[in-house]
Amino acid sequence: MTGMTGYTYGPAEIAAIICILTVMLSVRRITDVIPSMLGCLFRWKEAFNLEYSVRLSRNRNITFIVLTVPACLLAARFRLYDPDFMSEMTPPLRLLVTCGVFIGYLLTRRLSGTVFRPKTMDRNAYNAARMLFLTFFSLMSMVCIITAGALSFTDTDDTVIRQVSLYITGGFYLLFIFRKCQIFSHYCSLFSTILYLCTLEILPTGLLVASAMFL
Fold first, then answer.
1. What global pTM score does this model have?
2. Cα–Cα nearest to 135, from 172, 187, 183
3. Coil, strand or helix: which one is 120?
4. What is the Cα–Cα distance from 187 to 121, expressed in whole angstroms?
């Protein structure tokens, strides 16, 4: 695609432009749900308030969808997911593979949630715990994108931006596991909580990390 100035836009640039436009169109929905999403960082019961509200849960889902591609762009640009087989890939192919891996991760989570769903746990509680991933992923993506953008403007080395983004991702993930553990422990025994967390969260994430380390 060639712009009016004669500059040729690559797939990454086109995807970035589309993402910016999509975020601009969704900004009212995003700002509407952000307070409730932030509340989930501090109180596990806020996850229930978010799920019980049709408007908020819908806007949270839209926020997650809108931020998925920008998160993949960030991961591809700064090599947050960097297995050996991707080392020689061109940027467009790296972006495509990164999106494919993320879709595979989501499908693995969905499969685990279907196969290992707690049979005796309250359905509403399970849905609140399951959908909590969308909330934390959305918040993590926003923080990583804003941080990476700010650091890029200060000419910070890509390696530093990569490390900072990984630390942010790790911090959000640990807090997410803790909040989900609080929800499960309120309805299940400690042993069942640990077992469910291992099958529903640790297993999919472990497969993702293992693929980055050994492929």
1. 0.91
2. 172
3. coil
4. 6
